[in-house]
Amino acid sequence: METKRFNQQEITEAAKILRQGGLVAFPSETVYGLGANATLEDAVKQVFIVKGRPSDNPLIVHVENFEQVKQYVDVFHPLTETIVEKFWPGPLTLIFKIKSDALPRVVSAGLSTVSFRMPDHPLTLALIKEVGAPLVGPSANTSGRPSPTQSEHVYHDLNGKIAGILEGGSTTIGVESTVLDISDPTQPPMILRPGAVTKEALEAALKVPILVDQHLVEESQAPRSPGMKYKHYAPKTTVWMVHSDDWQAAFDWATSNHFKIGVLASPTLQERFSNQMTAIYPLTDETVTAAAKGLFAGLRALDEEQVDLIFAPVFSETGLGVAYMNRLKKAANQHFFKP
Ligand code: TXA
Ligand code: MG
């Protein structure tokens, strides 16, 4: 199969493939998604096969607006309307109890809940509208690879396995959406996966305490979101996390051991240590926003270089830093450079 690259003038053509059960990857503000018509069982099954995704890991259903969710859900948490009004379209996935048999069971991997998200991307919203049905959309990478933030990443992983990719440039946020469980109307909302919609932002907007899955706090707990148990985002090259005070020591150690180092490097790091780096993936500034945007692309790029180790910066675990560190720790297998 030849994987076609669709531009924004070709949305109708891409939509036609999706209506007929084919797979087309789409851009979003977080990462690229692997699209299939959520109402077609065989198309959804194909998504699991193409990604090599474990069949117990449910998919997110991407909708054009909140109205579309109401076709599949009839029990809503009292905070739903406020959440949707404040955060959709955007990087927030919401888990609802599903109306029985409203969607093929494979979508939610047999669970009684299903997750929905309205992505903040004009091309993808236009695509869903044109298809006339919601689209499942796991990150469009081979399972176990970093999520794709550019269409080239999708092409690299899935060329020849899917019908097409809708081109939308680089994604702006770079880490996957926050997953918020609001399936039980009697319980406070709970974050199952951290993303760009932070606990702080949710609490400020909703004026209620937001719970966080214990798995995200304590290693020993089993996750409530099946996907969080898999070792994601691991590049082939070993990744070490470096605290801001430890860069000098880390480079001195690497140099004295003749290790070739690739670095996800802010402008300051590039300036201070350029002669001790074999490869650089440049971050645009010093912020965690820039680090999150560059993380997956950087890991992919540095993995192609002849380096022994990848160094990535540690950020404090507040705000977007929670999501960034969650993904980075998995990529680094929890390993910090110790001076
Ligand atoms: O930003 C994103 O969320 C991207 C873009 C393309 O929208 N999609 C994405 O999908 O990251 P995926 O499949 O890679 O991650 C979905 C996560 C998994 O951890 C899965 O276990 C969890 O959401 N999830 C989905 N439905 C769920 C459900 N009903 N209950 C618990 N967890 C669920
Ligand atoms: Mg994924």
TrEMBL record:
One of its GO terms (molecular function) is tRNA binding. Keywords: ATP-binding, Cytoplasm, Nucleotide-binding, Nucleotidyltransferase, Transferase, tRNA processing. ATP binds at residues 53, 57, 113, 139, 147, 193, 233. It comes from the Bacteria. Residues 8-197 form the YrdC-like domain. One of its GO terms (cellular component) is cytoplasm. Its main location: cytoplasm. L-threonine binds at residues 30, 62, 117, 177. InterPro entries: DHBP_synth_RibB-like_a/b_dom, Sua5-like_dom, Sua5/YwlC_C, Sua5_C, T(6)A37_SUA5, TC-AMP_synthase_SUA5. SUPFAM superfamilies: YrdC/RibB (SSF55821). This is Threonylcarbamoyl-AMP synthase. The keyword Nucleotide-binding applies. GO terms for biological process: regulation of translational fidelity; tRNA processing. Belongs to the SUA5 family. It catalyses: L-threonine + hydrogencarbonate + ATP = L-threonylcarbamoyladenylate + diphosphate + H2O. Required for the formation of a threonylcarbamoyl group on adenosine at position 37 (t(6)A37) in tRNAs that read codons beginning with adenine. Pfam families: Sua5_C, Sua5_yciO_yrdC. Its EC number is 2.7.7.87. It is found in: Cytoplasm. It comes from Enterococcus alcedinis.
